Amino acid sequence: MSKLIRIGTRDSELALWQAKTVQQQLEHLGHKTVLVPVKSTGDMLLDKPIYELGITGVFTRILDTAMLNNKIDIAVHSLKDVPTLLPVGIVQAAVIKRGNVRDTLVFKDNEEFLSQREAIIATGSLRRKAQWLNRYPTHTIVGLRGNVNTRLQKLEDNDHWDAAIFAAAGIGRIGVRPEEAINLEWMVPAPGQGAIMVTAREDDEEILAICNDINHEETEICTTIERRFLNLLEGGCSAPIGALAFIKNEEVSFQGVLLSLDGSKKIEVTRKEKLGNHHNIAQYAADYVLERGGSRIMNDLEDADKNIQIFSTKNLSEVQRQRFQNVNVESTDFLKISLNRIPKPLLKSPIENVIITSQNAVEAITAIVPKEELQFKNIYCVGRRTKKLIEAKIGKVKHSENYAKLLAEYLVEYLDGTEVTHFCSDIRLDEISQTLEKNHIKVNEVEAYKTILDSEKIDSKVKGIMFYSPSTIAAYLENNEPDNKVAYCIGDTTATEAKKYFEDVRVAKIPTVESVIDLVNETYA
């Protein structure tokens, strides 16, 4: 072929590795190629004519758009990310020889947590979550998104996480598999996992013929069965479905699984057929699963998908999740906290009046100096839980309020003296300082910790966002738009900030996470 083959790819490290693999195979056959990296947003807004063609894949749609607009000749994808129904005008042109199909558990220190009742595992995959909970029902699953390197960094940064689950092929291909990792042989992978798909325009006969030369027939047979099984169950990324086919001694072996979202229900199927008689494996397996309770599970999943979607900008415990009614909730921490090293002489010296407005400040103080060496005379704080932590780790609280504004007003009237020391974050509202200084009370601010904004793009189906501070709103806005979403706020200060961006802002009766959950429940009772 004389013309240049334009190879479209997302611009992540793994996506580029996959595209270069295809590029090398094409150039080995004598073809000229060029990579065309495309920046992916995760849920690109499409023009109506393209959208009506049925582009649904979150990771593939931007390349589909580029191809239909004739900006690229072929596109390279992780096969497991590709919808089972391709857009009109686009077809599968080749499947590259498969790599490692397994999921891999990357852990922090050792594997002891596997035998413990309590453990925290990170994954953004419903399939992995459901299978893990089926095997370890008392463990907690937290959300994890981003490219491979981002997810590995998040695992390292979150001290309370025990492990995270990755595709073995992904971390292996770019050479970042840690020593602290094991393959999960018991976990059924996603349909097409470990394989690379090349797509092209249906009417480009020349490109299709070229791609056929790099197609790996055995991988194509196996992944076609897996994806057909997925399609027949009417599942996509929102359903916990696993499938794996392989060929050995001229025989095709298949394993499939469907689970409920919480992993409590699981239906498995296995099937073997001689190569050549394998074409009905997917149909048999899908029928088997559906007839044995799979239809009920899929209906429950469909109903769940229709339920109101809520997102919490703070990671929720399992007990808190169970408090929701008629609501599907996702949660992750939009803020990271980095404790500052407060000078010891400051903490050891007598301080007449101390203000503490968060549990993070308590942790920062007690990480430097033990309770016995602190000489805080009068401690004032914000929040019931902060008060409880202070009295457990520092000493008696003289007075507390639910909101910073109310505490400031109290101090203006009742403070002993004219000076306070406020242990706070680098990101804060100046409500306390402004009120006190306006009333001739000196405020010595000590930055006890730094607040790092760490948000992610959330699904467009989400109807409401739960906020716990002005900082969580700032983090949300880094990667998201308010749109028509409802802002559920923990208190008046957070609500005041939310009203700058959201039309519908609702405030909890008391400043606790549980009260914000109750506020959501009231909306959808």
TrEMBL record:
Cofactor requirement: dipyrromethane
Q: Which domain of life is it from?
A: Bacteria
Boundaries of every Porphobilinogen deaminase C-terminal domain copy: 221-276
Domain annotation Porphobilinogen deaminase N-terminal: ranges: 5-208
What does UniProt give as GO cellular component? cytoplasm
> Which BP terms in the Gene Ontology apply to this protein?
heme biosynthetic process
Q: Name one Pfam family in it.
A: Porphobil_deam
> Catalyses which reaction?
4 porphobilinogen + H2O = hydroxymethylbilane + 4 NH4(+)
Return the PROSITE patterns for the record.
PORPHOBILINOGEN_DEAM
- CDD domains, sorted: HemD
Query: Where is coiled-coil annotated?
Result: none
EC id: 2.5.1.61
The GO molecular function terms of this record are: hydroxymethylbilane synthase activity; uroporphyrinogen-III synthase activity
Tetrapyrrole biosynthesis uroporphyrinogen III synthase domain location, by residue? 350-517
Using the UniProt record, name the top-level EC class of this enzyme in a single word.
Answer: transferase
Q: Give the pathway.
A: Porphyrin-containing compound metabolism; protoporphyrin-IX biosynthesis; coproporphyrinogen-III from 5-aminolevulinate: step 2/4
Q: Which UniProt keywords apply?
A: Porphyrin biosynthesis, Transferase
Q: Which PANTHER family match?
A: PORPHOBILINOGEN DEAMINASE (PTHR11557)
Say what the protein does: Tetrapolymerization of the monopyrrole PBG into the hydroxymethylbilane pre-uroporphyrinogen in several discrete steps.
Q: Which family does it belong to?
A: Belongs to the HMBS family.
Subunit architecture = Monomer.
Q: What is this protein called?
A: Hydroxymethylbilane synthase
Biological classification of the source: Bacteria, Pseudomonadati, Bacteroidota, Flavobacteriia, Flavobacteriales
Name the gene behind this protein. hemC
